Amino acid sequence: MSHVYFDHNATTPVDDAVLEAMLPYLRDQHGNASSRHEFGTRARQAVEAAREQVAALLNVQPVQVIFTSGGTEANNLFVKGAAAYLKPAQIAISAIEHSCVVKPAQELTRQAWTLRRVAVDGRGQVDLADLDDALKVPTGIVSVMLANNETGVIQDVALAGERARRAGALMHTDAVQAVGKIPVDFAALQVHALTLSAHKFYGPKGAGALVIDKRIELRPQLGGGGHERGLRSGTENVPAIVGFGAAAELAASRLATLAPRLAALQQRLEQGLTALGAVVFGAGATRLPNTTFFALRGMDGEALLIELDKVGFAVASGAACSSANPEPSATLTAMGVEREIGLGAVRFSLGKSNTAEQVDDFLRALATVAQRLRKLKAMTV
């Protein structure tokens, strides 16, 4: 039985064109980008070409792109690196941030910083009035994700950025889930720093970037040979960086056609889910065109995931990084979703290879699985 993959927010398959771009740097072009001979020069040229491709996707200058091992490292580099050059103050983050923003922010509280979580409403949108209230206190850093990894809800980062700047704070956005799915322009977002990761838009795992305002000072988190303008030491992963660049160029070329196609599939899915009585979280907000986070009342999300996997459909019960946590996701809790409903949450995330037929097959399978689970539950009561 072949499985249908509906978990693209966790990771995407590497595009064939991306793999083709990477292969020479896994074979003959194996030089270290810091070496001075011909092999090293070719590797350096490949890294810088990829930097230009990533920069073009976000409408920034290549010098603003700092390559990292992924989104987690990039978020840590900004939060900890920026804080190191600031006087301890408040760090304000949205209540729905990924753990790789939350945990470094929590670490700052051991260094005389205070942590303020900015509330979201029932649709998962950041409460800008609560942000205004938070900014009444001296604040050094604000971080608001561009698109939530679970609900797909898109935040008005530009408005949050304007407020942060007026308050004299540095503004960061984790755009890992947004890049490649919606247009992302660094300057238009009013941010000082932005995080992205290649494997969320058909690039390889192990390649990410922090895009920064050139005026921002960051303390490196890795000491060593001074790679990436001294901000991220370590021998560059040339094949992954080349793949990152290729994926960025592909994302830019496909955005105008891919997003509407995914949105049509999303609408088809959600019409079917509504007919089954499902709750779609964040339904009233602007969301990514590929993401649907839903629950069937009385159903356990983990049980649904397992049973759907058995019949050939790969979905997630929330953020992949916290799938072992038996509690409802922090995002749904912040949105005020009842615990019982939250425990039933399933995340469905579309990708470029998915079809309408696959969506219809999934809906039929979901109806069958849910009916079977309800019968089993009734028998055990």
Can you put this structure into words, describing what you see?
- With 381 residues, this protein is α/β, with parallel strands linked by helices.
- The protein folds into 2 domains: 4-12 and 256-380, Aspartate Aminotransferase, domain 1 (Alpha-Beta Complex), CATH 3.90.1150.10; 16-250, Aspartate Aminotransferase, domain 2 (3-Layer(aba) Sandwich), CATH 3.40.640.10.
- It contains 11 helices and 12 strands.
- The strands form 3 sheets. It has a 7-stranded mixed β-sheet with strand order 2-8-7-6-5-3-4, sandwiched between helices. It has a 3-stranded antiparallel β-sheet with strand order 9-10-12.
- The protein starts with a strand and ends with a helix.
- The model is unreliable at 319-323 (pLDDT under 50).
Radius of gyration, whole Å = 21 Å
- Low confidence ranges: 319-323
Give the overall shape, derived from the CA principal axes.
globular
Helix share, percent? 25-40%
CATH topology of the largest domain: Aspartate Aminotransferase, domain 2
What name goes with the CATH superfamily of the largest domain? Answer: Type I PLP-dependent aspartate aminotransferase-like (Major domain)
Terminal Cα separation, in Å? 33 Å
Structural class: alpha/beta
Proportion of residues in β-strands: 5-15%
CATH class of the largest domain: Alpha Beta
What integer is the average pLDDT?
95
Based on the structure given, which CATH architecture of the largest domain is correct? Answer: 3-Layer(aba) Sandwich
Characterize the main sheet: 7 strands, mixed
- Write the H/E string, N to C: EHHEHEHEHEHEEEHEEHEHHEH
What is the strand tally? Answer: 12
So how many helices? 11
Strand order of the largest sheet: 2-8-7-6-5-3-4
Q: How many domains make up the 3D coordinates?
A: 2
